[in-house]
Amino acid sequence: MTRPLPPPKKKDPQKRTRAPLVPPGARSRAALRMTAAAALGTFRLQVCAACGAAAYPPRDACPKCLSVDLAFRDVPDGGEVVAHTTVRTSTDLYFRERTPWRVGTVALDCGPAVVAFLHGDVVVPGRVRVAAKLDKAGNAVLIALPESETPHMRDDPLLRELTASPKHRRALVTDGRSAVGRALAAALARAGASIVFVGAAQLWKPFPEEAELRAIGNIEIVPLDVTDTTSVSELAGEIGGKVDILVNTAEHVRPGGVLSRDGITTMRDEFEANVFGLTRLAQAFGVAMRARGADGTNNAAAFVDVLPVHALANWPEFGAFSAAGAARLSLLQCLRAEMRPGGVRVMSVFTGPLDDDWRQTVPPPKVTPRQVADAVVRALEEGIEDSFVGDVARDVAQKWRQDPKVLERELGQ
Amino acid sequence: MTAAPLEALLAGLASGEVEVVDLTHTLCPDFPVIVLPPEFGQCQPFRIEEVSRYDHRGPAWYWNNISMSEHAGTHFDAPAHWISGRHLPANTVDQLPVRDVVGPAVVLDFSTECAGDPDFVLTRAHVEAWEAAHGPIPPRAWVLFRTDWSKKVGTPDYVGLREDGAHSPGPDAGAIEYLVRERGIIGFGTETVGTDAGQGGHFSPPYPAHFILHGAGRYGLQCLANLDRLPPRGAVVIAAPLKIRQGSGSPLRVLALVPASPQVPS
Question: What residue of A is the nearest CA neighbor of B49?
């Protein structure tokens, strides 16, 4: 049984911080499709369109009938562990530092026998469910989990390596003035974060949200304005070495597109907060986080950005805001690659329209702050790279995968 | 004209008999700006981005790019800033006569009255009472309204935002009418974020200082500092805005030349 993870001791300042290492990163294009599925938190294998056989590991032709029509599909995740071993040493530096490491063969109900990492609570032989999760190099790996939840299951060291659980970690939420930021601070505290730093901009303005934030406990309110480089770098100077999870909830939203506005003043405000704000946070905090990717129990684990799903395709009613979202999405892709050597996950949480003043005239369904907060915590606990919150976000994402041009026309009707 | 007056000034500066007082707040990103309803265009606060600092971006030099509203920090309002001044000639900062930017200053000290009342309204009666004590306001003067509000910078009391809007002292229409029409002032300067009271939008006309001053081609100065270091009269203010083409105003360095206060023998 997994033992509950104890809170980390204070760091010994005389010891060098362990440099992050990542497992081998190269994958075939076929294997990257499995990574893409794992990034969404789904378990998909190739299923042959000709003979129906499921295949693993990913390949270019069906091992049964040689058809090349192998698409990734959701498959049942159940299986039986038939053999296991414990790796005690390795020539690979990443694994060498993390042994012993349990590995086993799982006969999947959907057909293939797969080699998977084994969660500490997996009993051999026995039933398991297999999940595809992203490793520190950002690639899909398979992990066999106990069929039903076990006590302290998330504290398993292997599972913790494949996720970014808030437990015992120190989080920064960038905007405590927003309802999403407040809900998120509370959700992270509930999920076991040892402290949640909550940013608040323009403290010369009234701060009625302060009481609600303070009631959460485990909170420290810090001055932070993502539109101000000085403010971001000053905060990073103070707490940059102890932010393990950064969640950017800063958002400047106004209705309007290109022709429906006069000039770029408002668009500049949107880009200042949504695009350059993200950049400032990444530049100020990202380098230290990347260097702390293997810094013990409370290592730097994730940089999360909450962004509009219309980053994928423009919604002209909020056209400029969508454009800022698109820039944000592109920056996150860049940042993901840049943070990967540190094993720090960059997560995107795409939301549909929030239920707030600025989207007052937008018809439902709209997203509540609590939904966003829960999605962020779930992404962290499950290690999901791209999450979609609310019906609109899921619908837009699905249509985008089917045909971005059709989606563009639908949104622009 | 002989050079004598300037020589006297220089001699005064050299001897310390003329003191230079900085009436300017430091431009910094967290300095408050005026808050408008969010559906309107917003005043951009001061921002600074480092270009290089003796590093790989520029090994031997340090410099920054800055951006801000024309109305950020200690700043100047030109007549064109307000709708009432929009048709006046030379109503922008690039065109205004430069002789206007140097002038005598009188300081109307109502800091005691404001201390207990963030909604203190300066009326004609207050101005007349001040004149009764200190003599009439000279023509073409800068009238500086001392509230000690500059000491509240950095606290929520500076702008004084509440659910019903901002709360900070300012003049009513009667006071500004009197200063403009009967005293021919060149401009009106405040320590607060605007020349009008925080609640000035509810006055008649709305924002009377802006409306009347700029309608009459006069200027505004706001976010001033160190007014408590000026005498009630006798100082000279130098307030030259940046020469922005068609600019409605500008951040600026406001200086006052002040007769040095007599030293108390120790």
Answer: A229
